[in-house]
Write a structure and sequence with these properties.
The protein is of the alpha/beta class and about 240 residues long. The chain has two domains: about 160 residues, Rossmann fold; about 70 residues. The two termini are about 40 Å apart.
Length: about 240
């Protein structure tokens, strides 16, 4: 990633009536402000490395993962990735609520580039990992948020990606599901997969990652060994005695 910047146009206010919307359109549209989610961010991740992205809410962490995943294009700079990249940015994103869980496995996995034959070969493992019982053949609209999270992670964890982008994955679902996620990620890590992890949990960051980047207002504040960066971040935001 070389000198990457990303911006959004943020509307100051939304029209509350049809009349107001028409008047604003005739006068040139809704006033907006340019918001820079990321500014001149540069770093490299080596194959097999485990990188943590830390920072307060609104610092640009999820935007950064979305850029790497290809959800957004940078407004400035460039991003180069080598290998299949899977972003766990929102478990269940890409599911069709009117289709069954089983059908959505094929749909979701196809979005990551797997053929129907490849999905079929992994289907039983994915279903077993999700562990949602007979609901696998029910419409996803009948699922709880925890069940959607289980199925979403189960699919993504069986894609065999070289690069995994994880956004607070271990913070969703019940305790048993979180433990299952952590064990699966440990296995993927041991296999040499590259991990880029966003988390507010300092212990998870220290356990999972070699290196960390601290973002603040879309800019890199510090980058280096995970213990040093996390300590600097905690020192700044530690509550006063």
């Amino acid at each position: 990633m070389q000198a990457v910047s990303l911006n959004f146009h943020v509307a100051h206010s939304r029209p509350t009536t049809i009349k107001e919307a028409v008047i604003r359109r005739l006068r040139g549209g809704i006033p907006s402000e340019l918001f820079w989610a990321l500014r001149e961010v540069s770093f490299e991740v080596e194959r097999g490395e485990r990188l943590a992205i830390i920072g307060p809410n609104g610092s640009g962490k999820t935007s950064l993962l979305s850029l790497i995943a290809g959800v957004y294009e940078p407004d400035e700079g460039r991003i180069i990735t080598r290998g299949r990249t899977v972003g766990l940015l929102g478990l269940g994103v890409g599911f069709d609520a009117d289709m069954s869980g089983r059908a959505n496995i094929f749909l979701n996995a196809s979005l990551f580039g797997l053929s129907r034959q490849q999905v079929t070969a992994r289907l039983e493992d994915i279903i077993a990992f999700a562990d949602i019982g007979d609901f696998i053949d029910a419409q996803v609209r009948t699922y709880s948020s925890g069940m959607v999270a289980r199925l979403g992670f189960a699919v993504a964890a069986h894609i065999d990606a070289e690069i995994l982008l994880l956004d607070e994955v271990l913070a969703v679902g019940d305790v048993q599901f979180q433990q299952k996620c952590a064990a699966r990620l440990q296995r993927l890590r041991d296999q040499g997969n590259t991990l880029v992890l966003v988390s507010h949990d300092a212990n998870t960051v220290r356990e999972m990652c070699h290196r960390a980047i601290w973002l603040e207002h879309g800019r890199v504040m510090e980058s280096g060994p995970v213990a040093e960066v996390v300590k600097a971040y905690e020192d700044k935001y530690a509550p006063a005695p």
